[in-house]
């Protein structure tokens, strides 16, 4: 394998089943949020059964384990969300949209208050088989792209970030290792993508300022222009989608910028009142 696309080393994959994998009948927010996808995987690294953990960056809580370090963020895939089964404008009034994300529900409810929602769990193939009759599902575009799934035979729409702000870290991978494992840290540094890392650090700063694994609908998307300037847009909403707050700002320091966008939503846009409900 070329180091341009990955590490040129032999690897042994350690498959770890998480609580989220075992409890497909329970929605993520009912199990305690993001950590349900990563704790068992992190434990394998902490116990020495694995050298690195590879996560979807969107599954990582803002506060990391003190004995682990986010060693690398490879080049990010498409961060946008994907509506499958219909386009936003073509969904029938009152139709059902299936999604396990409160962030997606709130933003769709803001745009289309007539829609109804139901939960959605499972891998991508399972989810694509569960498109409600006359309705749609919402998935991460990166997941469909990575699996090279052909959607040409089904109605679908890529939702722009102006319509649907993504989850923090969506589309990016996060590689963790033990903080004291300098040799592994040096090895995985080869797959670090600077722009993707800056974007993910900014978005994670946003989430951290909201209070870590915020259980309210929240999202953030960081972009870097041709001049290297960083922009972060953040969102905080009520669970019913009746209130949706958005703010964007530019800056140099990734984490500080993410935190500043969150502070603006909390203190100047009235978002603190949402956290108190």
Short descriptors:
D-Maltodextrin-Binding Protein, domain 2; Double Stranded RNA Binding Domain; 11 strands; three-stranded antiparallel sheet; 277 residues; 29% helix; alpha+beta; five-stranded mixed sheet; single chain; globular
Task: List the topology elements.
Elements: H1 19-22, H2 28-31, H3 39-46, E1 52-56, E2 68-72, E3 81-84, E4 96-98, H4 102-111, E5 116-118, H5 124-128, E6 136-140, H6 141-146, E7 156-159, E8 173-178, H7 182-188, H8 194-210, E9 218-224, E10 230-237, E11 244-251, H9 254-268, H10 271-275
Parallel strand pairs: 4-5, 4-6
Antiparallel strand pairs: 1-8, 2-8, 3-6, 3-7, 9-10, 10-11
Helix pairs in contact: 8-9
Can you characterise this structure?
By secondary structure, the protein is α+β, with helices and mostly antiparallel strands. The protein has 2 domains: 19-77 and 168-275, Double Stranded RNA Binding Domain, CATH 3.30.160; 81-159, Periplasmic binding protein-like II (D-Maltodextrin-Binding Protein, domain 2), CATH 3.40.190.10. The chain contains 10 helices and 11 strands. It has helices at 19-22, 28-31, 39-46, 102-111, 124-128, 141-146, 182-188, 194-210, 254-268, 271-275, and strands at residues 52-56, 68-72, 81-84, 96-98, 116-118, 136-140, 156-159, 173-178, 218-224, 230-237, 244-251. Strands 5-4-6-3-7 form a 5-stranded mixed β-sheet. A 3-stranded antiparallel β-sheet has the order 1-8-2, with helices on both faces. The chain is globular.
């Amino acid at each position: 394998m070329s180091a341009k696309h990955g590490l040129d080393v032999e690897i042994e994959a350690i498959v770890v089943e998480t609580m989220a994998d075992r409890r497909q009948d329970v929605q993520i927010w009912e199990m305690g949020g993001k950590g349900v996808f990563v704790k068992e995987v992190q434990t394998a690294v902490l116990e020495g059964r694995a050298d690195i953990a590879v996560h979807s960056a969107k599954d990582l809580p803002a506060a990391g384990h003190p004995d682990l370090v986010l060693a690398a963020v490879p080049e990010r895939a498409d961060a946008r969300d994907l509506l499958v089964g219909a386009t936003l404008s073509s969904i029938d009034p009152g139709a059902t949209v299936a999604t396990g994300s409160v962030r997606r529900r709130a933003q769709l409810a803001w745009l289309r208050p007539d829609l109804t929602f139901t939960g959605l769990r499972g891998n991508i193939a399972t989810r694509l088989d569960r498109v409600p009759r006359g309705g749609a599902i919402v998935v991460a575009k990166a997941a469909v792209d990575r699996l090279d799934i052909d959607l040409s035979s089904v109605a679908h729409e890529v939702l722009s970030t102006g319509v649907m702000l993504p989850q923090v870290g969506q589309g990016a991978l996060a590689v963790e290792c033990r903080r004291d494992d300098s040799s592994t840290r040096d090895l995985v540094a080869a797959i670090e993508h600077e722009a993707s890392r800056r974007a993910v650090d900014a978005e994670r700063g946003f989430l951290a300022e909201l209070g870590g694994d915020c259980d309210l609908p929240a999202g953030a998307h960081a972009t870097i222009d041709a001049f290297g300037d960083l922009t972060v847009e953040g969102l905080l909403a009520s669970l019913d989608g009746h209130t949706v707050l958005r703010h964007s700002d530019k800056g140099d320091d990734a984490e500080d910028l993410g935190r500043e966008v969150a502070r603006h939503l909390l203190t100047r846009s009235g978002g603190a009142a949402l956290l108190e409900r």
